[in-house]
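Entry for the shared binder. Reason: the reviewer on the internal report wants the predicted structure included alongside the sequence.
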Amino acid sequence: MLKMISGLMAIILRRLAASVAPGIAKTPVSELRRSIVSKLESNMKTQRETFKKGDRVTSGWIKCSDRLPLRGEVVATKIDDADGCRNEGTLKRGSGRLWFLSDNSMYVYYTPTHWRPLPTSV
């Protein structure tokens, strides 16, 4: 999946570069791809390290109002609002506004405000 994303980003980058900075457009796609993949891997590593440290800062967290995980995806979730941070856990996104325990045993009565991907095993 990372290769597909990096390939698409290289095409988009090349097209943007051609219209904004013609000199960049001459950069080989392989170099652009390497650069993009390197930045993506660095960002993923930072997110994994942040998650492992148990950092409660919003670093790495995605607001549910901005974007939701895919239906059926198991992610780390929390509620972080005026009352503070609570209900941190691992949930599976259902359809609409429904969230389930990761084993699908039951739905939860609340809607998380933030989520982030679970770290991949290294």
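Summary line for the report: The first helix runs from residue 2 to 20.
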